[in-house]
Amino acid sequence: MKFDFTGKVVIVVGGTSGINRGIAEHFAATGAKVAVASRSQEKVDDTVASLKQKGAADVMGFVCDVRNPDEVEEGLAKVHQAWGDFDSLVSGAAGNFPALASKMSANAFRTVVDIDLMGTYHVMRSAYPFMKRPGSSVINISAPQAYLPYEAQSHVCAAKAGVDMLTRTTAMEWGSEGIRVNSVVPGAIDGTEGMKRLAPTEPIRQMILEDTPMQRFGTPADVANLCLFLNSELATFISGQIIAVDGALYQRGSGTFNRKLAEPLYKM
Length: 268
Hints:
Elements: E1 9-13, H1 18-29, E2 33-38, H2 41-54, E3 58-63, H3 69-83, E4 88-91, H4 106-127, E5 136-141, H5 154-174, E6 179-186, H6 193-198, H7 202-211, H8 220-230, E7 242-245, H9 255-266
Parallel strand pairs: 1-2, 1-4, 2-3, 4-5, 5-6, 6-7
């Protein structure tokens, strides 16, 4: 199946690395106009060049910190001024590090909440006036920590649970305007910064692989394909959903991997 988003305006916040860059590149390959945003001008420039090579009808990029609503609003307003209403918005900026709640500073906890939850809100709230009515779609990149308790991840669990509830409530509030909102939950996606940070050794990678019923790691393309579907005419009655792309990994809960992640922190 091939998707055609020729002439469509797609925004991917956090779209300069990892899963989110893969999403941006797949939209570019369908002929969409794609705008990306991140905190690094260097990454924005590199991604813009890549998107042009991938076949995007047009490309833009801007620098912002999702914790700063004014920067987000200014960047999105420039895209809207250039291209008009948004057909698709992907909000994917995130932050994570393992830490026990009892040993984490208030500032460390707040940092993740500010990036993951407040950042998602700032992106959605700033983009809301620019979304096409009817017929546009918002995708929030969530995480299993939204519904599975993980040791050493209390900050991420709290933040991502908020993201998914934001998805559900805005799906109801914005539905009458023809704006759909869904969350996508990636599994163990190989070649990403998240995998490098949380599974830095081969034994841990093998542990995750053994816990995954489909017996393989995911790829950015796996997540991008779901995003393409959710933004297509095939998904016009799907909204308020939390959909995992995980090879059934999360059916087994947080698993052995989480215990191994947390064990060293108890000894510190």
